[in-house]
Amino acid sequence: MAIADLNLEQRARPRESFPTWLARRGTAFWVVGVLLLAMPALASSFWLVQIIAYSMILGLVALSLMFLAGYGGIVSLVQMTVAAFAGYLVAILGDSAISQISLHWPWWMAAPVAILVATLFGTLCGALSVRTEGIYTIMITLAIASAFYYLTLQNYTVFNGFSGFNGVKPPVFLSIDWGQNLPFYYLTLACSILAYGTVVYVARAPFGLALQGTRDNPRRMAALGFDVVAHRIAAYSFASFIAACAGVLLVWYQRQISPGTAGVGPVVDMLIIAVVGGLSRPIGPFIGALIYVLLRTFSLDMLEGVGLDGKRYQLVIGLGFLVIVLFSPDGLIGIWQRLRERYRRGSDARDAGMRVGGGAP
């Protein structure tokens, strides 16, 4: 099924401003927001950082992919590579245990430069791939991701080869160690909320509407005077910025980075996360990331409990992916939307029956 086919309901919705969109959010939206803010008082450090914060970081990378696929019709497999590149740059420019390579810049210089250079890298990848479509875009971006993986694996002068970097130090700012559990959780939450809100806003801005137009009918948009290629490259730049920010958070979370972070497996995992969550809403990647992290964390015990090798957790993730896509090509968000619409139609039918039974005209 084409990516554009996954967004029929999204294209049918009337355009609205961001304040209007925010004002009409339901109770569940605000309950989840309050719950996330109060999570440190409700959850242990393990759940706070290893599950929720890690899910938000992966969700940010998947969100960048969702923006390209959902709004631009571009399935890019280079987003995890951009995040890994940003993480490597933080380790190279900042502090790490590999002191013979790291340049020991202060974090307020290393992190912005890492984000900027990684964003430029993602933009260049987009410039190389936007003139292709479908499977060709996937193959080009996958080739770039594979090339970067082998570069980091074999280069010891800059990337320290197979070992990568460890001992990467998170920042200390305003007398707060942002690597500690509570500050890091709120830092990750703030970045996730900002990225989510920005994607929602951009999708309703003129650029986002034009990008969706290039997704639906690029020839017509070109005939109307829009530069389709330029819009797609700009979309890559925006998505790469989000992925680069996630890469900085990832290396601060793991305190290390190695070629495995940019391997083909994690690259494909981002696509799985985005599709499982749903490509029609920005919240979908975060839901998919949470499901992925939960399966990855607890499938080891689940498999060993039934007498199977715990290392086969990817089998559980793959089966879950197949089941969700089989029943809902637009992911968990699609299932939720259908259930909500079914409930709404049922409520409307009951109200209409009550009015008719009560003698209403």
Automatic annotation (TrEMBL):
One term under GO cellular component: plasma membrane
Keyword set includes Nucleotide-binding: yes
Transmembrane region(s): 21-41, 47-67, 74-93, 105-128, 135-153, 184-212, 233-253, 315-336
InterPro entries: ABC_transp_permease, LivM-like
Topology in membrane: Multi-pass membrane protein
Primary location recorded for the protein, binned into one broad class: membrane
GO MF term list: ATP binding; branched-chain amino acid transmembrane transporter activity
Protein name per its UniProtKB record: ABC transporter ATP-binding protein
Organism: Bosea vaviloviae
